[in-house]
C-alpha cells in the first residue's frame, strides 16, 4: 500500500513547550504544600470541646479536605495536554476510492420539546456531507413515535433533492438550511443570487407546511395518501405504546434515488422502536442500541456518527477529519471512537450561563485524552461499529473498515424494513448482552460515560478532537432553570457511576491508566464537592454575624497558605480562561455559574443520589426544552439572568446572596465602629473579604431580587423565603 513516505494521517502535539510544563509542575507543587499547611492549621488550632465554633471548624476542615483532594484529581488533566491534527488531504490521496461507509444516527425524543424543523435541519446537515452519498446513510430515531416527525422527515427527503446539489455546487457552509439562511446573502460566497432566493423560498415553504401541520395537530388526508408509511399511525398508537416502525424514505441502493442533478442521494431511514408501557425502554441508550441493530440490517457501515437532534454539523468535512483517526496505518487500528466537543451556536458574547466551558473543552478534555481516557459524551462522536458492539481490541484480530452486507445486497426494501422491525422490538434484547456487553450500557442516566469507559477497558483507544472550526453546534440553555436542571442530571448520573461497579478506580484498574481514572473523576465527583462549596459560602458569613472567626488572623503566618492558595488558584484560573479565548466578563460570569451549580444542581444531585442509594426513588429523565418565548430570548440576548419560576434552587441562590450581603455589611460596620480590638478585627478580615467577593459575584441576583420588573426577576415568594431563612439563621445561636 502506498503510504506516501509513511506520513501518518494524523499527528499528536503537546500543547505547551517543555519549560512551561516544568514551571507548571513547580507551581502545582507549591499549591500542594500550601494545601497541606491549611490542613495542618485546622488540626493544630482546632477550638477545644465546648468552645464556640468547634463544629463550624470541623465543617471547614472537611470542606478543605474535599477541596484539596479534588484539586489533586484535577491535576491529572493539566499535566500533559495534547492536540490532534488530522490530514484529510492525505486521506483523500490514499483512500478516496476506498472510503468506508458511514451511518449517521440522529436521536429525538419529543416533537414538542424538539420541534421537527430542528430535527430535519440536523438530518439535512448530515445528508449533505462532503462524502460519497452511496456510502452515507442517515437514521433518525424518533422515541416520541410522532407522525409529525415522520412527516417532517418525508418533507426533508424531498427538499434534499434541491438542497444537496446546491450545497455541492456552491460549496456552501454550514449545511443546515436554517443556520445557512439565517445569514444574509453574501456575494463573496459566489452563490448565484437567484438560486439562493429560490432555495430559501423552498425551505421557508417546507418549514411553514410542517409547522402548520403540527399546529393543527393532525396530518391532512391528502398528505397521508402520499406515503405508505403513514399507515403505521392508526388510532391505537400512543407515545409509549406502539409497534416498531421502520421506513426507508430514500433507498441509496436504488439507482433512481437521485437529486435534481441526477446524483445519488444518501440513504434515509425513519425508525421508532417498539414501546410498551410495562417494558423498560432505557431512554436514549435503548434507542441507540435499536439504531445499531436496525442499521446493521440496512447499511451496516463500519463507522457510526452519533448526533443529538439539536446538534447540526457545521463542517461538511467532519467525516473526513474523523476518518483520519480510524484509517491511519499505524495507530488507526486501535481507535474506538473520536469525540468532538459539544459546542453551541446560541452563545451570547459573555456566555452568561457558562455553556461553552472553554477551559473544559480546550484543556481538561484534551488532558484526559493524553492519558487515553477520552470521555464519550453522547453526541458528536464517531464510533467504530465493532468496538461499540462489544468487541475486544487485539493486535492480531484486526478489524477491516468494510461493511459485511451479504444479507442486504439485492433484497427488496420491504424485506429490509421487516427485518429491521424485528430487531427494534422490545422482546429482541431479552436474554442477550445488549445493554451489558454490547452497545450502550443500561441502568445509568449518563450511559455515554459508562459506555466510553467499558470500551476503553476492552483495550481500545479513543481520541478527542477539538478543531478550531467547530464541527457540531447544538443549542445552549437559555434560562437559568434549564442550565441548572441539565447539570443536576449530568452530575447526578456521574456520581451514580462513581458509586456503582463502574467506578473508574475499580472497573478500570489495570485496564486504564491511573491518570485517566482520575480524569474521569473530575466529572464524576462534582456532586459531593458541592458540600464543600456550600459550607464555604455559608459558614464563614454566618460566623461573621455571630462574631466567631474561622480563619487565621491576617498577621499570623498561618494566613499565608490560605492567601496563597486562594490568590494563585483564581489568578491561574483567570489566566487559563483568557488563554482559551474567554473574555474577562465571561470568566466572571463563569464564577457565578460555578457557585450556582455547586450550591444547587450538584447539591441536589448529591442528595438525590444518596436517597436513591438508600433505595427510595427511581431515576427520572427530564428533557430540557429547546424552545423558549421571545421575551425570554430577548433577555438572554441581553445577558440578563432568567429566574422567573419559583424553584427551590432559586431560594437557595437568593438565600446565599442575602446572607452574604448581610454579613458583609455587618462586618464592615464592626470595623467602622471600631468595636473590636485590633486582634479581633484582624481575625474577621478574611471572612469579610470572602463575603465581599460572594456579594460581588451575586450582584445580578440582587438586581433580580430588588430592582428588576420583568418576568424573569426572582419571584416575591422566593424573596420572602430567603429573607426569613437568613433572619432566623442570624438570630439562632450556632453551637
Ligand atoms: C440563538 O440565539 C440567537 C441570538 O444569539 C437568536 O437570534 C436565535 O433565534 C437563537 N436561536 C435559537 C434556536 O434559540
Ligand atoms: C461554522 O462554520 C462557518 C463557516 O462554515 C464558520 O464561519 C463558523 O465560524 C463556524 N462556527 C463556529 C462556531 O465555529
TrEMBL record:
UDP-alpha-D-glucose binds at residues 114, 143. One of its GO terms (molecular function) is glycosyltransferase activity. GO terms for biological process: cell wall organization. Keywords: Cell wall biogenesis/degradation, Glycosyltransferase, Membrane, Transferase, Transmembrane, Transmembrane helix. It is a multi-pass membrane protein. Its main location: membrane. One of its GO terms (cellular component) is endomembrane system. Coiled coil: none annotated. The keyword Cell wall biogenesis/degradation applies. Signal peptide: none annotated. The chain crosses the membrane at residues 21-43, 55-73, 520-539, 559-581, 602-628, 648-672, 684-702, 714-734. Belongs to the glycosyltransferase 2 family. Plant cellulose synthase-like E subfamily. This is Cellulose synthase-like protein E6. It comes from Cinchona calisaya.
